[in-house]
Amino acid sequence: MKTALKISSCLSVILALLLIYYLIQELSRGMSIVEIDFIAALITLIIISNAILAFYVLIGKLKPVKPLLVLQILIIIPTCLLLYEFFLKPPMGCS
Q: Which one, 10, 24, 33, 82, has the greatest CB density within 10 A?
């Protein structure tokens, strides 16, 4: 379980950094902070707080527990889908 928690923690931190990178990229293109929807901001805060918890697990400040592993996996799956939508899916064009 410790290995799975460390892997999911590393993945959580990496995914959160990618999401923050995308957010900074969008803000530098001229998007304002007030244009961000409430739900998107809430999801971003959940992903970032999961990354902070994962970082604490990796440095040894938190004990590895099974509910934390389940929580991380439940957050990692939608985060991967969200990043897929941002980076890998081609934009919809008019045909």
A: 82
Residue 68: count other Cβ atoms within 10 Å of its Cβ. 19
pTM of the model: 0.76
Taking only the tens of pLDDT, the chain with its 95 residues reads: 778 888 888 988 888 888 888 888 877 887 776 777 777 778 888 888 989 988 998 898 988 788 888 888 888 888 888 778 777 766 554 44
* 47/76 Cα distance (integer angstroms): 8
Tokens of residue 83, six digits: 């990043």
Task: Note the maximum CA span of the chain.
Answer: 54
Residue owning tokens 């998007």: 31
Contact (CB, 8 A) for 48 and 20: yes
